[in-house]
Specification:
It contains seven helices and 14 strands. It is extended and about 95 Å long. It is α+β, with helices and mostly antiparallel strands. The chain is about 35% helix and about 25% strand. It has a five-stranded mixed beta sheet.
Length: about 290
């Protein structure tokens, strides 16, 4: 066979291969991989278990569910668990419940909360409060999840429940010992264990009022809000808690008249302690948001 014939046979073979690929892949669309939804998987049996070590334990073969992109929980299948938990919190004022709500990134957040997970946790908190649980013993957090089990188009296991001991509020001398001097001197706002509402004092309120006036007159300036937490609980939860503190303070300052464009937030979790976490006073000093004018 001559070289010219070989060349044309190669051209013909290539043309046939390309034609076959076009027919199969582009016309019949048989080459594209079958895409499955990566964030949901069917799990008809998804039991619920809430435990506080040896102190308290309830389980159910049913679970709390949420419709996609919705914050309202379907809690009726586990109503008896909610009643038991509310009673346990009332009888144990030294225990704190942290509810972590989860959401998928594919869901839309129609609530007023920072994210859908936090909105779901807040809805559960209000249910417990209505059943008699002390509001101050329940902390809420929200975070995204890579996947959540489903049942009949509803999400399951979108809530986690964690217990811990309640520490006393910070020593009043801690939050009042540093008088306000000027806005260029950084100031710390302190928090009760697990809380996102800072402890107000005349000094820090004076700082905020002065800062509002300064930022209004200097629109190029920024205010950096850095959230911190003590080491109670997991590092992941403390990072979320410190972020929630900073973001909640930003919303409060915005409502007080500061421009959101001039407010920056950061979160350090338990990784930048001001004092040792080995004592109650040290942990109280670490539950803070540091404010710096930039």
């Amino acid at each position: 066979m001559s070289k010219s014939n070989v060349f044309w046979w190669i051209i013909l073979g290539g043309w046939m291969a390309a034609s076959t690929w076009w027919h199969v892949c582009k016309i019949k669309l048989l080459c594209d991989p079958v895409l499955s939804e990566p964030v949901r998987y069917q799990r008809p049996d998804s039991p619920l278990s809430i435990q506080d070590g040896h102190r308290f334990s309830v389980t159910s073969q049913k679970n709390i569910s949420f419709a996609l992109s919705e914050e309202m929980p379907n809690w009726m299948p586990v109503q008896h668990l909610l009643d038991s938990l509310a009673s346990y919190l009332r009888a144990n004022p030294d225990r704190k419940l942290t509810i972590v709500g989860h959401y998928l990134l594919s869901e839309s957040n129609k609530s007023e909360a920072m994210n859908l997970g936090l909105a779901r946790a807040e809805q559960m908190k209000q249910l417990y409060v209505l059943k008699g649980a002390p509001e101050g013993q329940i902390i809420t957090l929200g975070e995204s999840a890579q996947s959540l089990p489903t049942s009949q188009d509803s999400l399951l296991q979108a809530l986690n429940f964690n217990f811990s001991a309640i520490e006393a509020a910070p020593d009043p001398t801690l939050v009042t010992s540093r008088p306000h001097t000027d806005i260029f001197t950084p100031i710390d706002l302190y928090y009760s264990p697990g809380g996102v509402q800072y402890i107000k004092t005349p000094e820090n309120e004076k700082f905020i009022a002065t800062t509002r006036q300064y930022l209004a007159a200097n629109p190029e300036k920024k205010l950096l809000l850095t959230g911190h937490a003590d080491n109670t609980g997991s590092e992941q939860i403390n990072m979320k808690l410190s972020q929630n503190r900073a973001e909640h303070l930003k919303r409060q300052l915005t409502q007080a008249g500061l421009s959101a464009q001039q407010l920056l937030t950061d979160a350090k979790g338990q990784n930048a302690p001001k004092k040792s976490n080995s004592t109650a006073d040290g942990r109280a000093a670490n539950r803070r948001v540091a404010i710096v004018v930039q």
